[in-house]
Design brief:
Number of strands: 0
Radius of gyration: 20 Å
Order of helices and strands: HHHHHHHHHHH
Strand content: under 5%
Distance between the termini: 51 Å
């Protein structure tokens, strides 16, 4: 592992443990047992380090799409993607918890984030187009309804770990995963064909269609 990679890895660990705002570059250097000057040689300031971490995040999620087997059923593709996202959310916990403050404080990173949001929007639309082409979705109940549903799903993905931190006792004794929650949003809008296919790919999920 290179020094840059060690810095990124340790920064993520510390940001997750103590919060992004509470960790300085000196804290990271101390934990790595390197000089502050050595760290600044690789990452001039906190913003450049955060930008490097964000590029790792972006590349990692993009790889999920690249690795999806396009020959598989759309529901299999979508479920695979969602399940890959869950550990990702935990891996970069700090960013998901502090995304609003990060966007406000670092305009250059907000610009990158805005571009990524547009890309994720296109990718979500791609999934919905596949669902529709496969006959899995009921006719749209109102104009642009499914566009709004896609937006709700993306909001849920973005703020999933935040709501888990705030609503810890929402459902005592039962962990509700992000994947299950997203399928819950989709289920009422599936055709009979869509419901049958959902059953085929959801054996490990908690909700069971009757």
């Amino acid at each position: 592992m290179t020094t840059k990679e060690k810095i990124i890895s340790k920064a993520i660990d510390l940001y997750n443990e103590q919060g992004f705002a509470n960790i300085t570059s000196r804290d990271i250097a101390k934990e790595l047992k390197i000089s502050h000057g050595n760290l600044e040689y690789h990452y001039q300031n906190k913003e450049t380090l955060l930008a490097a971490i964000y590029m790792c995040m972006k590349d990692e999620v993009s790889s999920y799409f690249a690795e999806i087997d396009q020959s598989q059923d759309p529901f299999v593709q979508f479920d695979t993607y969602l399940r890959r996202l869950e550990p990702f959310q935990t891996k970069y916990l700090f960013f998901n918890l502090d995304v609003l403050e990060i966007s406000r404080k670092y305009p250059a990173i907000k610009e990158k984030l805005d571009a990524t949001i547009l890309l994720r929007k296109e990718q979500m639309t791609h999934f919905f187009n596949l669902f529709d082409e496969s006959g899995y979705l009921q006719p749209e109940p109102s104009k642009e309804y499914y566009t709004r549903l896609q937006h709700k799903i993306r909001v849920l993905i973005t703020f999933w770990v935040s709501q888990e931190a705030v609503l810890q006792n929402f459902h005592p004794g039962q962990h509700i995963s992000m994947t299950i929650s997203i399928w819950d949003l989709l289920l009422p809008h599936l055709t009979e064909k869509g419901k049958r296919q959902y059953k085929n790919v959801s054996q490990a999920l908690t909700p069971v269609l009757k």
